[in-house]
User: Fold this.
Amino acid sequence: MTDEHRVPWVLGTQLHPEVGPLGRAPEGSRVLMIEAHDFARRKPYHHDKLTLVFAAMRQFRDQLRDRGYAVEYIQADTFREGLATYFEAYPEDTLVAMRSPSYRSGPRMAELVGEVGGDLEVVDNELFVSTRQAFDEWANGDTDSFRHETFYRWMRRESGVLLTDDGNPVGGDWNLDEENQEFPPPEWDSPERHEVEHDATVREVSEWVSAEFETWGDDEAFVWPTTREQALDVLDQFCDQRLPEFGPYQDAMRSEDWAMAHALLSPAINLGLLHPWEAITEIEEAYESREDVPLNSAEGVLRQLLGWREFMRHVYRHAMPELASANQLGATKQLPDLYWSSETEMNCLAETVEDVHERGYAHHIQRLMILANFATLWGVEPDQLNDWFHATYVDAYHWVTTPNVVEMGQYGSGVFATKPYVSSASYVDRMSDYCGDCHYYKTKDTGDRACPFNALYWDFLARNEEQLRSNHRMGLMYSHVDTKRENGDLAEIRDRADELRAMAEAGEL
Ligand code: FAD
Ligand code: SF4
Assistant:
């Protein structure tokens, strides 16, 4: 078969012109893209998520055509229908596609192409920094549990990122997490954000999405880059102006400040508009060439991109399919309605859900310590929260939500988390300004207007005592549980937890 009949099939999350089979196909080549719509009818996705995916695909198509590629852009209900249309027109072709990071994507793509009588070659996904083979060599056959910190150090060593000539971490420490936990002073203004200017395609797609699909979320304020050029501008602006402040305030949360100094790059990177290595090199370069970028900022963000993002992808690969339904704490509760309505007197939750409603985004600590924390304390079945994140976030795909939500957020399986990330109001109060304006009292465990996080936190520990008490990282917390039990507070706390559940039922939480 000639090269002319080996045709790149570019998935909607692989929109990078220089990577993979497309990057190697000469200009003028035929390229397949399929815009499938049925998936978008299965859940109430955020309006902005669907707008982002469909607009980015259509703009990428137009850019490739401008560069001379013969793009077959097929709109269909399903991939199967799109593939059938394609092979009817080009029966001689073999499609060459990078596998997506979703579970069993390679075999599933092969099945679909086989069903319509076509040929497919699946190749590695080059839109990550590490390869499957490299990670598996690192894991060395031990694929039951993984530790991020050892993986991250290995990635630093292998890639040379923030490494001295003799192979040590720049500055002496591998991980400056403890320098990422300050709360900004009242006079601090978060750095400017790059305002993306959208063209007619985005506006048309946005209107079409609103008319065509049953979506959730605001359809007015679309802020995300949909082209590679726009994504590069967001990256440049992050490095120029936001990076210096990223480090100290990485874990802080403020009302009316949805972006803080975060990179806001995950939607673009997860679509392939940017390769993570492009972001990593530009950030490292900013640190090396400038005086105003502190190490806790550079290391803080590189740890996420080079460490966590890559780690999550591989852990997902190894821990699926069990990870999706993992529920080692046996949580069975429904996700409270307030995750959809934002109707609650709990200020931290109301503000965070409103942020998500507005833009399909909330930053990491809001995701982990407000949304996932509360769901874990409430006893929500992890799969339900995973589904919610998957529908409502602009950067959400199964490979990245599942390890983040089910494991990091809800301690579903123990495949890499060593304890649940749970807290009472004291953490929320330390890292945010939410509690000051809240209807509830942050210091009260029980009684009128006592903060729900408090009673639910102790109730969670008591409920899961059999599994968690022996965890040496939970020792201190259980000594407090013992004290509360001995002085009779625990019984009252558990009554308060029941009362909170009744309040939620009645829509009064
Ligand atoms: P920054 O905080 O500025 O970080 C820089 C980059 O690092 C991000 O753009 C992202 O590409 C990467 N990154 C950071 N942390 C992680 C992580 N834990 N896993 C993967 N990549 C990471 N990330 C997603 O991309 N999609 C999701 O659907 C998603 N859901 C999450 C759900 C929960 C419960 C939690 C706790 C985390 C989730 N994350 C998810 C990880 C992280 O919160 C987001 O990547 C980050 O908030 C994106 O915003 P940013 O680009 O401003 O990131
Ligand atoms: Fe959230 Fe409780 Fe603080 Fe209110 S008092 S903002 S519910 S942690």
User: Anything to note?
Assistant: The chain has three domains: 3-123, 132-317, 338-505.
